[in-house]
Task: structure prediction
Amino acid sequence: SAVISQKPSRDICQRGTSLTIQCQVDSQVTMMFWYRQQPGQSLTLIATANQGSEATYESGFVIDKFPISRPNLTFSTLTVSNMSPEDSSIYLCSVRQGGNYEQYFGPGTRLTVT
Amino acid sequence: KQEVTQIPAALSVPEGENLVLNCSFTDSAIYNLQWFRQDPGKGLTSLLLIQSSQREQTSGRLNASLDKSSGRSTLYIAASQPGDSATYLCAVRPDSGYALNFGKGTSLLVTP
Result:
């Protein structure tokens, strides 16, 4: 199974600022996914990031707010821009591996916006 | 739009009990279903993956079943232990698309 690390593990940020979250995988993967888990809610997919192409965003999420980079097959970043308290969530990086498409998740980044 | 519901939302049992967590989904056009465990403030740990063509999967004290036609899955935990205390999430992958559709989870507390 893939081992995924994220940085930072948590942060407290002020309204209007931006935070970049890093995701590192221990093996090469084609697709990386970014999910958000708001307090008391289920996980929601933000975008899918393929190496060498623009990320694909889900309905309700836009590139200006959540720019994503995917410079190689083991690394991705998600930036949360111009933050507001509503952005306070856990952000999780995810990959899928194997022929059965099992999905693996990183430890998450807990973001609090004040 | 796929809706995933997990019942109960919370469950407290004494150590040693066998228990069942339920997951239902509205669209049977799924590729697979995955059960995860989430500890407080942590990421998700994959427990079991069931392909749409399978009926069940087992790992240790865990057994997951899938009835695709009725839109239901259950996670059976045998001889529960305090270390099993966590939130259990059910997620379905549709036949098309990449997004996993998650339920809100069942928060399990196993008391010594």
Q: What stands out?
A: Chain B has no helices and eleven strands.
